[in-house]
Design brief:
about 180 residues; alpha+beta; 5-stranded mixed beta sheet; 5 strands; binds FE2/S2 (inorganic) cluster
């Protein structure tokens, strides 16, 4: 017979999530991924492997990409956390941020499970390197796994997102389909 484990002590954790201060009680062992999903209700962050391999759970802490399945919620206390829900641009017509628009325009997702992690990773990547080469775009997403797309259109989305973020709205497109900037 299995014994039920007593609930651990819970501590109030306050983080600024997508620009809004949020507080919830969490056990000290609560991961940041579970905290944002289950305690804050932000289910856009996906959890795949739960041990730092797939990148699906990537969020930004103070602008840096981290695997939220490997971070304890209590260690994010007082920091700025950006989840995929915070990547939109509500003041625009589409309300999509540049990386989101690029994914749409380049058909860079299929099932979408991996997509939140790619969007956050690429947001940080082009903030650090606003004009990536194709090789640098490949490197930028090397730590994220996608079981569906074969990555080519995600690489195209990185290059397109960098252009969009710089104010160049020349549309991207799926790799190998004659889109702007695609080599044949
Ligand atoms: S769920 Fe965190 S890296 Fe896979
Ligand atoms: S789109 Fe399905 S795992 Fe990436």
């Amino acid at each position: 017979m299995t014994e039920s484990r007593p609930a651990g002590r819970r501590l109030p954790v306050t983080v600024t999530v997508n620009g809004v201060a949020r507080t919830a009680d969490a056990e000290p062992r609560r991961t940041l991924s579970d905290f944002v999903r289950h305690d804050l209700g932000l289910t856009g962050t996906h959890v795949g492997c739960e041990h730092g391999v797939c990148g699906a759970c990537t969020v930004l802490i103070d602008g840096d990409p981290v695997r939220s399945c490997l971070v304890l919620a209590v260690s994010a206390q007082g920091h700025d956390v950006t989840t995929v829900e915070g990547l939109g641009q509500p003041d625009t017509v589409t309300e999509l941020g540049p990386v989101q628009r690029a994914f749409r325009d380049c058909h860079a997702l299929q099932c979408g499970f991996c997509t939140p992690g790619f969007l956050t990773t690429i947001t940080a990547g082009i903030a650090e390197n606003p004009t990536p080469t194709r090789d640098e775009a490949v490197d930028m997403i090397a730590g994220n796994l996608c079981r569906c797309t074969g990555y080519q259109n995600i690489v195209e989305a990185v290059l397109t997102a960098a252009r969009y973020a710089a104010g160049d709205d020349t549309p991207g497109g799926p790799a190998g389909h004659g889109a702007a900037g695609v080599e044949h």
